[in-house]
Amino acid sequence: MSTLISINDAAKHLKLTPQQTRNLCRQGKIKAQKIANSWVISNNALMSYEREKFFRVAEKQIV
């Protein structure tokens, strides 16, 4: 089972603002759950987003 983390903790990890991180969640780019009025992200979802982002950047550099 994956640990759930807050938007603020995820934002620090991603080096983004909390608002940018919330926007990524709303857009479905980071799989997250909204519990009451707060978004939470699993460690697995955060790692998955980072992998996808890494491969998108690497793909652009190859082309």
Could you name the ranges where pLDDT drops below 50 across 5 or more consecutive residues? none
Main beta sheet, described?
3 strands, antiparallel
Rounded average pLDDT: 89
Output the radius of gyration: 12 Å
Number of strands: 3
SSE pattern, N- to C-terminal: EHHEEH
Count of DSSP-assigned helices: 3
| Helix/strand class | alpha+beta
Number of domains: 1
**What form results from the Cα inertia axes?**
elongated
Looking across the biggest beta sheet, what order are the strands in?
Answer: 1-3-2
**Proportion of residues in β-strands:** 15-25%
Straight-line distance between termini: 38 Å
Helicity range = 55-70%
What are the SSEs and their pairings?
Elements: E1 4-6, H1 7-14, H2 18-26, E2 32-35, E3 38-42, H3 43-62
Antiparallel strand pairs: 1-3, 2-3
Task: Write a brief structural summary.
With 63 residues, the protein is an alpha+beta fold. The protein has helices at 7-14, 18-26, 43-62, and strands at residues 4-6, 32-35, 38-42.
Folded structure, characterized:
With 63 residues, this protein is an alpha+beta fold. It has one domain. 59% of the residues lie in helices and 19% in strands. The protein is built from three helices and three strands. It has a three-stranded antiparallel beta sheet. Strand 2 and strand 3 form a beta hairpin. Helix 1 (7-14) packs across helix 2 (18-26). The longest helix has 20 residues, at 43-62. It starts with a strand and ends with a helix. The mean pLDDT is 89.
Distinctive features:
63 residues, alpha+beta, three-stranded antiparallel β-sheet, 59% helix, elongated
